[in-house]
Design goal:
The protein is an alpha+beta fold. The chain folds into 2 domains: 155 residues, no CATH class; 128 residues, Heat Shock Protein 90 (2-Layer Sandwich). Helices cover 60% and strands 13% of the residues. The protein contains 9 helices and 7 strands. The strands form 2 sheets. The chain has a 5-stranded mixed sheet with strand order 2-4-5-7-6. A two-stranded antiparallel sheet has the order 1-3. A hairpin with a 2-residue loop joins strand 6 and strand 7. The model has no long low-confidence stretch (mean pLDDT 78).
């Protein structure tokens, strides 16, 4: 449940906050009582450290094993109990450690340590309640942003160019009169292509996308009399990487659409690498006529927006050595991430 989700960095920040709060509070009390500021800082830091550790263990157990399985009306009481005991046992542990390493504690503290531990437990609950509200608001905000991004992606995917389908079906209709077996195979490939487009996944594996592209090029080659040559160099050690659906296919489609295939053979090469900077690079290179001033139409803008939403990625264009190169650069969230 999103409102119970506390990230590792949250616990790190909570422990750091606890240490700072404890050493400042305890150090201040020691100064007021004209005791050693250093000992006050040590005692306070130990309190903050152990309260943070107990909190992370107890609250994580509470959130994952108890609250998720019971009615919400019991949450506040159980949160109070677990937070109280995190502060209570954290204080007792710090007190015990100070006695072991000979850190002087305030007069009469040991005689009343359970009272002091109870006060610390109450303070822990109130501070934890404030932090919980902050984390809950943050989680709800992230959930809203994720849902908005998902809706935006669905809109972008719905804009994908349907012209390919119309052209492929027209080619199939013409092919029926010439080669019925080839027409049947083409229709089966179109069916497979459409089935892929209807998948409810925002991202698919690189292998799935490459199979998708090969199927697409096979269909297009029927239209262009086998004038398109596709070459794939996948240099990844494994293919457990996920990319936006249609991302490579769209660039291959772009290469086919903007070149005069009837006049000469078109070679398209796909090269996939993971560089030392940790980014994933996918280059789609063609040796067609190209164009010096590329304009990002609906398809390329669509791809650019999806890459940015999903990966903080981008698509760039270059023209060199009589080749047109479109490069997809994925900066994060591309490994083991098929949501």
């Amino acid at each position: 449940m999103d409102e119970l989700r506390i990230k590792i960095q949250d616990w790190r920040d909570i422990v750091i906050f606890g240490i700072l709060f404890g050493l400042i509070l305890s150090g201040g009390i020691y100064i007021i009582l004209e005791k050693s500021f250093f000992y006050g800082v040590v005692f306070g830091a130990l309190n903050g450290l152990f309260i943070g550790i107990y909190s992370s263990l107890l609250i994580t157990f509470l959130n994952t094993e108890i609250l998720a399985n019971i009615e919400k009306k019991y949450w506040n009481f159980l949160s109070f109990v677990f937070s109280f005991f995190a502060g209570f046992f954290g204080n007792l542990t710090a007190t015990f450690l100070c006695s072991v390493i000979d850190i002087p504690i305030l007069p009469n503290y040991y005689e009343n340590q359970f009272i002091f531990a109870s006060i610390v437990g109450l303070m822990t609950y109130f501070i934890g309640f404030i932090l919980y509200k902050f984390v809950s608001i943050r989680n709800k905000s992230e959930t809203i942003e994720a849902n908005l991004a998902k809706k935006e992606l669905e809109i972008l995917e719905a804009q994908l160019n349907p012209h390919f389908l119309f052209n492929a079906l027209n080619s199939s209709a013409e092919l029926i009169h010439k080669d019925k077996d080839m027409a049947e195979m083409m229709l089966l490939n179109i069916s497979s292509f459409l089935r892929q487009t209807l998948l409810k996944k925002t991202k698919i594996s690189i292998l799935e996308e490459l199979n998708f592209v090969q199927n697409y090029v096979w269909i297009e080659n029927i239209r262009f009399n086998q004038e398109i040559q596709l070459h794939i160099k996948n240099n990844l050690e494994d293919s457990n990487y996920y990319i936006p659906k249609f991302s490579i296919q769209l660039l291959v489609e772009n290469a086919i659409k903007h070149n005069k295939i009837a006049s000469k053979l078109l070679n398209i090469e796909i090269i996939i690498n993971k560089n030392n900077d940790g980014n994933l690079y996918i280059d789609v290179i063609d040796d067609g006529d190209g164009f010096d001033d590329i304009q990002f139409g609906v398809g390329l803008r669509n791809l650019r927006d999806r890459l940015n939403l999903l990966h903080n990625g981008k698509v760039i264009y270059t023209r060199a050595y009589n080749q047109t190169i479109f490069s997809i650069i994925l900066k994060d969230k591309y490994e083991n991430s098929n949501y």
